[in-house]
Fold methylcrotonoyl-CoA carboxylase.
Amino acid sequence: MGRVGLEWSPFLELSQFAGYQLYDDEEIPAAGIITGIGRVSGVECMIVANDATVKGGSYYPVTVKKHLRAQEIALQNSLPCIYLVDSGGAYLPRQADIFPDRDHFGRIFYNQAIMSSKNIAQIAVVMGSCTAGGAYVPAMADENVIIRKQGTIFLGGPPLVKAATGEEVSAEDLGGADLHCRKSGVTDHYALDDHHALHITRKIVRSLNYQKKLDVIARIVDGSRFNEFKALYGDTLVTGFMVGREYETEGIAKDGAKMVTAVSCAQVPKITVIIGGSYGAGNYGMCGRAYSPRFLYMWPNARISVMGGEQAASVLATVAKDQKAREGKQFSSADEAALREPIIKRFEEEGNPYYSSARWEPENNQLPPGCWLGATS
């Protein structure tokens, strides 16, 4: 990422654990795509880069999900997008889970059209293959760069052309830089190599005349000093809701609903950091993923699930014990232990941040809050 112009600023990488242990027989590090926010020519940009070392940059279902999440963040925060494209398109053995549905592969190009309608700049750098639907990424960008004798764009590659028409043609002749820059007009900039392409990209970003938002907090907080309000009142906040007759009588459900309503309807950017347990309704009240925070982060010791493993095991053990009693059978301590152990183990595995990050989008857990705030709009 340094070559895009990020040498002197941090790169806020998103969803690094996407795809981790998700497919039993296949390893797809970071879902085969790198996404994140970095500063290019002084402008915060969303960067989406295919990793051709992972299945040729092909899209698995989780790859599509990660790409869409990056576009969602760019839309929410009006971030220009830079696509570093080198992809063979959809991973065909899993095409049924990639192609037809609303949030599948086609949604990427739908989002590109929506971003263009909202005047969010998009720049594509064709660094390798852009095949089939993937050809739309550079074609729908505001400006694109293609690398000589390296980048190619075509709806149907040489094997498909031969199968369909019998014509034999090389990838370069079918969709290379010379064809698209000199004849078809699909591409805008002709680059000699990777370095030249990224140099052109930086120049394009520089020419956007992008209006930087004011660093509001920096202008309010003098020298990073912070005056805490009501420091001695309500000095602890525990995520979650108390259970029991007393709290139900006092209307905890109604109070919790008010909290969920406030979080849902708040119009300011929301950033969620899960630093410990985030269980059940407490996750909803503290702006979990379902409530569309701009960013969601989990620390390594965080846990997220409907409830804790011990509590889940106790509930299910009680249900099993009552069922055995209705059947006139005994439910021994050994039976209870045999039931509880796998439940606790499963909840621990499914509640840890690595499991969550492989399947949905906790973004990161390391970079300072200033990086998150700087990207919001």
About this structure: The longest strand covers residues 122-131. DSSP finds 15 helices and twelve strands in the chain. The chain has two domains: 2-206, 217-375.
